[in-house]
Design a protein that fits this description.
Two copies of one chain form a homodimer.
Chain A: E1 2-5, H1 11-24, H2 36-43, E2 49-55, E3 58-67, E4 76-83, H3 92-106, E5 111-118, H4 122-130, E6 134-145, E7 149-159
Parallel strand pairs in A: 4-5
Antiparallel strand pairs in A: 1-2, 2-3, 3-4, 5-7, 6-7
Chain lengths: ~160, ~160
């Protein structure tokens, strides 16, 4: 698997990955009905660096990195990861997260923070924990899950 | 003290309040060198409702409210408060926070979250606690304070 900076030409592949996740509305706090343009503008915003994970020319996953806060908080980065539905379970998210941790260190970030991990996304919570993240906060009933109703969201954090 | 929605004409007074706080860089994770226009655009952004607290026509403080997340997280609001330096200690922040809690309930929000309360801002931490907020998360060394160096930031939360 090769992980590299996303280019303009990756937009259709990125959209194929992120749109189903956004439409499902079960793991990201984003408007499930947002337009394709808004979705791409969100994922590839000017304040983000966006990456793709590909294998034999097929994009299997994508992630972004940005400073989580400005000013006195700009040494902490934030990332979001999404995997192509048909590639889940093959270690794509794990590889992207490992890549992002190495890249964040290279860029001089001192910590990585996930602001809003939906607690019912247990697969993700376990994966982030196995990669060194700790749950440093719990937001009670902060996410309205499309099938589970109001569930907690977690703040996860890792010094680098 | 009267608390009301901010109008365009309040911009100079708002700027007089927020600019020193931003320039000091000790309590908000914002670029301390941001321009006056950027500061106003931040505080009065389209996704925010901005209020002013005034007494005898003098603006003593200002706050904003916005949805903290989109989609499944949009039932939780976020606020930021700033008090005119010369009016600190007169209960302006307390009055604004009480106003915001009532307004948030009125608007149908189910909780209020502060994402990044600098732990050395003890006056604020105590005030928010006295108004019903709990510390639900601690971000280790997430803020670089201009004089104290790296200090923790707190996530505070209150169901409404």
């Amino acid at each position: 698997m090769d992980i590299r900076q996303a280019e303009e030409a990756d937009s259709p592949a990125i959209l194929e990955i992120i749109l189903p996740v956004i439409r499902e509305g079960a793991t990201y706090a984003l408007d499930a009905n947002m337009s394709e343009v808004d979705a791409l503008n969100y994922w590839m915003a000017d304040d983000k660096e966006t990456f793709v994970a590909e294998e034999r020319g097929i994009v299997l996953g994508t992630y972004y990195m940005r400073a989580n806060q400005a000013g006195g908080g700009r040494h902490v980065c934030n990332c979001g990861y999404m995997t192509r539905a048909s590639s889940i379970g093959r270690g794509v998210a794990r590889s992207m997260c490992q890549h992002s941790l190495a890249y964040a260190r290279e860029r001089g970030y001192r910590a990585m923070q996930f602001n809003f991990v939906v607690s019912t996304n247990e697969r993700a919570v376990r994966l982030w924990q196995s990669l060194g993240f700790e749950i440093v906060g719990r937001l009670p009933a902060a996410f309205r899950h499309p099938t589970h109703g109001y569930v907690d969201a977690l703040v996860m954090y890792q010094p680098l």
